[in-house]
């Protein structure tokens, strides 16, 4: 580790041992400039090629190379973000020259998204859904975009997993810059978590966006797996998609807490119940 980290230009800050079990712990610091990289006598480990994308974060093979430190003040990673909670509410400095997900300038998109979710949560989710948020701890935003939904919940004692679908814009860097948790995922595959983990799942125009790639019933079955009994699913989507999800929720014996549609858009809130079949029926195809 000492030889490798030295060749990678990391500084050894300190080495100490735990008083209880004498296990050693070392703290290293990554360089903040490319000066050390340029002065190395041997390019080992090598610097990555210019064509290698340091932002690639989904289904990418590991490479034994290091990316240069961004030195342009407009690049992500060249400066530290603002302190918490300011970093949660302010657009990252490196969004200046980019176009946002919704077509406006990225900083304007970011602010509009945050204000939208603050209004929705304060005026609807906290009051009109019948959810006892004091009992909620684990929340998932299944299509997070900038993480505005999670940011708007900052005053509640909840933990939010922000999921960015792989076929959506890569906004995960924004989510991390805000100090939030996040992950890429393909909702046509199972989610890597234990069953009955989440108290609330939130899906904003997710289900309609994946219906052309996989069967919605399989995705709803996955939702049933990771949602705790008596947990809530909140869906905002097209009216026809809301109708399809409502039908599946009823077949799962979920309770419809609220449903609303207007001008082709809809909102649905359902509660998973402890229901189990009372009569066991043999599956003939499984009997040899």
From TrEMBL:
Its EC number is 2.1.1.-. Its main location: membrane. The keyword Glycoprotein applies. GO terms for cellular component: endosome; membrane; trans-Golgi network. It is a single-pass membrane protein; Single-pass type II membrane protein. It holds the Pfam family Methyltransf_29. GO terms for biological process: methylation. SUPFAM superfamilies: S-adenosyl-L-methionine-dependent methyltransferases. GO terms for molecular function: methyltransferase activity. InterPro entries: Put_SAM_MeTrfase (IPR004159), SAM-dependent_MTases_sf (IPR029063). Keywords: Glycoprotein, Methyltransferase, Signal-anchor, Transferase, Transmembrane. The keyword Methyltransferase applies. It is found in: Endomembrane system; Membrane. PANTHER family: METHYLTRANSFERASE PMT24-RELATED, SAM-DEPENDENT METHYLTRANSFERASE. Belongs to the methyltransferase superfamily. This is Methyltransferase. It comes from Gossypium lobatum.
